[in-house]
Every structure is written in C-alpha cells, then in structure tokens.
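Exercise 7. Given the encoded structure of a 139-residue chain, write a plausible sequence.
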C-alpha cells in the first residue's frame, strides 16, 4: 500500500513539473510577416511560389524564398513600397519593361497585405526596382 501511496503522491508532483516545463519551453516563433509570393513570368500563369516568414529582421526557417539573409530587414526598410498604391493621376512614361508580374499576399507586420507588381510602364517599373531585392529572387 505504501508503494502505491508514494506513486500517487509523486504522480501529481510529476504532473506539476511537466506542466511547468512545458510552459517554460520556448514555443516556435510566430512570424509577424508571412508572405506568399507568386511569380508570373508571362504575366498570367504562376511559374513559382515562395513563402517569406520574418520575425523582425530575422528570416525564419519556414521561408522558402531564395533570397539573402537580410531580406527581412530590407523589407522593413522598404515598407512603403509594399503598402502604397500608385496614384492614378501620376503621369508615367509608357516604357514597357516586360510582362512579368508578382502577386504578394499575406501579412506584413501582422497587417493584411495584397499587392501586385509589374513592369508595364515607367511608374510600375520604378516600384518594381525599389523592391527588386525581393521580386527578382524568384525569376
């Protein structure tokens, strides 16, 4: 009987220790930026898709985008290029840079993001070039 009582007494203690350890264990990092980047070389059909997960300036292991280690810090520095819309009244040169398009959806700093980049005129080429560190890595 004593052995059984000791087992019962230790059992809640072990359970408590297990709970404390599980709470103290670091959880997997949740990305504050999670982007799905879809590359369309012909402008219509997706040829490749990549994920970019960032926690601050750190690229997380769940990322599949072939890019430099500082891609998240560059993204944070160029945030306006991803969130600003092109003003329709802005005069743009009618230079054609190619049919390529990139669709980026997901969350940027935990805020929803849905942007498209193309090279169909001078203004859009300028936008593309400001974030080329991210877009050119998929072509």
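Solution.
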């Amino acid at each position: 009987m004593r052995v059984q009582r000791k087992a019962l007494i230790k059992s809640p203690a072990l359970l408590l220790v297990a709970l404390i350890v599980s709470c103290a264990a670091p959880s997997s990092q949740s990305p504050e930026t999670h982007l799905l980047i879809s590359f369309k070389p012909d402008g219509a059909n997706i040829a490749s898709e990549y994920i970019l997960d960032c926690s601050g300036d750190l690229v997380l292991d769940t990322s599949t985008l072939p890019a430099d280690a500082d891609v998240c810090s560059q993204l944070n520095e160029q945030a306006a290029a991803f969130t600003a819309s092109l003003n329709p009244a802005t005069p743009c040169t009618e230079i054609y840079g190619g049919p390529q398009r990139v669709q980026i959806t997901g969350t940027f700093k935990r805020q929803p993001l849905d942007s498209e980049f193309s090279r169909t005129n001078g203004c859009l080429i300028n936008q593309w070039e400001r974030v080329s560190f991210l877009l050119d890595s998929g072509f």
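Remark. The mean pLDDT is 80. Students should compare their own answers with the one above.
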